[in-house]
Amino acid sequence: MFLKEQFSLWHRNKFPSHFVRISVNNSDTFKDEFMRFGRIAVFCAAPVLAGTLAAPAFAQNPYDGNWQVTIVTKSGSCEPTASSMLTVAGGKITAPGANVSGTIGSGGLVKVSINGAYANGQLSGNAGSGKWNGASAGIPCSGRWEASRQ
Q1: How far is CA 29 from CA 24, 33, 38, 71, in A?
Q2: What are the tens digits of pLDDT across the range 3-40?
Q3: What is the pTM of this model?
Q4: Residue range of the domain that includes 43
């Protein structure tokens, strides 16, 4: 019965105080409100669409490309020096014939694991450097690395 009473109050335009009545009697008012909403929607959607259309099909990293990396051992029994060519594509680091897992952020921060050794550091422009640590025959070793874009 409660719903019937509410409908009856609504039907006679006698709303309880907790109801809010919105009426659009003038089609011009409705059209104005609709047009205003349309302008707001276009204003909000334009930057999103512009960013989507301007973005490349895949995310590029400013450090994508080939990098010649040289490591120098400072402590432990690892080889004194070693050099390798690494490839960065979309911020991910790869190397032929090596177990590589790592990334380079858009700000140049390097985090990588290569054949069980771990390295971190910073790239800037066409060069970079950092530290690494690993082990040879179970004996820990560590050192520095330097890289240059090829």
Answers
A1: 7, 6, 14, 73
A2: 444 444 444 454 444 544 444 455 555 555 545 545 55
A3: 0.60
A4: 2-54
